[in-house]
Each structure stands twice: as structure tokens, then as C-alpha cells.
Specification:
Elements (H helix, E strand, L loop, with lengths): L7 E5 L3 H12 L5 E4 L10 E4 L1 H9 L3 H7 L1 E3 L1 E5 L5 E6 L1 H7 L3 E5 H12 L4 E3 L23 E5 L2 E6 L5
Parallel strand pairs: 1-2, 2-8
Antiparallel strand pairs: 1-10, 3-7, 4-7, 5-6, 9-10
The structure holds flavin-adenine dinucleotide.
Length: 167
Amino acid sequence: MSADTSVQPLIIGAGIAGLTLGIALRDRGIEAEICEAAPELRPLGAGIWMAPNAMQIFGRLGLAQPIIDAGAEVERVALLDSRLHEISSSSLATVREKFGFTIAAIQRAELHRILLDRFGNRSLRLGKRLASIETIWPRPPPFSKTGPLLLLPVSSALMVFTPPRAT
Ligand SMILES: Cc1cc2nc3c(=O)[nH]c(=O)nc-3n(C[C@H](O)[C@H](O)[C@H](O)COP(=O)(O)OP(=O)(O)OC[C@H]3O[C@@H](n4cnc5c(N)ncnc54)[C@H](O)[C@@H]3O)c2cc1C
């Protein structure tokens, strides 16, 4: 399927979802602009687990290895009691066999940095907050010359399709 380059997606929020979406669209030949409310992006959060389904997506984007290198691949999951005695544990080897990845544990700030490094600054607008939205979908026509037209919520990122800019 060839990418429709006649629309320019606008992604609201340069968090994990927004940046991943921007990278995925670029890989398909679509350059999206990301608007982020914060005036600067600072390291935030603690550890985060990336489940095998997320790692499969990052694998397709060529980001799985940098994430594993900056964090750790979880090999076993154990259930402990309040005295930290093991109740049960299981290996994730079969998960890797089936899905290609186990779980990656990483500092959220590191994950965000990896995504930010890959997306770059070119299409990132900081200090730009989406103030309000008007959903006209599914009312036709889907495109006009006046403003945002189609809004798709993707996790907590929001993708806004706008008509092509006049050149
Ligand atoms: C305590 C905790 C632990 C978690 N642990 C895990 C875990 O182990 N594994 C896991 O997969 N998930 C975990 N999650 C969930 C994970 O953090 C979220 O799913 C993930 O951060 C969502 O990414 P996001 O990009 O959608 O949102 P965020 O990372 O919150 O990014 C949203 C961005 O949008 C910007 N923004 C908001 N409003 C506007 C606006 N109006 N205009 C412009 N920009 C705007 C914000 O400033 C922000 O930068 C955890 C969540 C919490 C709270």
C-alpha cells in the first residue's frame, strides 16, 4: 500500500506514543509534525516494562536492540511473598520463542531519549498545546481547506489530519 502524502498528520503529545507514531509514519514515508505542550522535554518517570507486543513494534522500527541495550531483557518472572520468598517463577524462554522478544525493562527517561533521538527535532514543536478539538468525522467531505479534519486518538497521543499546505 502506498502512503497518501496529500495529508499531513499532526500528532499531539511527544510522549512514548506520540514519538513512536511519528517514527512509524516516517518509516512509511509520511512526515508528521508533533506538537508538545511542554516547553522542554525533561527526563521523567521511573522504570517501565515493554511487553513483547510493544517490543515487536519497536523491532519493526529498528529500535528493539537500542532499547534492550539501554535496559535489560527479563528472562524470568517470579512471584514473591512479603518476605521475598519465591512462591513460583517461570522462564520467559517460550515467550521469546513465540514472539521473538521477552519483556524489556528500561528507565522511562532512557526509552524517551531513544525515541527522541530517532525522531529528531525537525518536526517537533515544543510549547504548543492543543487547546480544543472539533470532531467532524464521519461527516463528509473528509477534507476541506480550512483546518483539522480527522481526529484519531492513538493511546494518549492524538493524530490530527490536516489538509495539505499551499506551496
Ligand atoms: C506509575 C505508572 C507505571 C507504568 N508502568 C508501565 C509499564 O511498566 N509498562 C508500560 O508499558 N506502561 C506503563 N505505564 C503506562 C505508560 O507510562 C503509558 O502508557 C505511556 O507513558 C503512555 O505514553 P503516551 O505517549 O501515551 O503518554 P505520555 O508519556 O503521558 O505523553 C503524553 C504527552 O502529551 C503531552 N500533552 C498532553 N496534553 C497535551 C496538549 N493538549 N497539547 C500538546 N501536548 C500535550 C504531554 O505533555 C506529554 O508529553 C505506567 C504508567 C504509570 C502511571
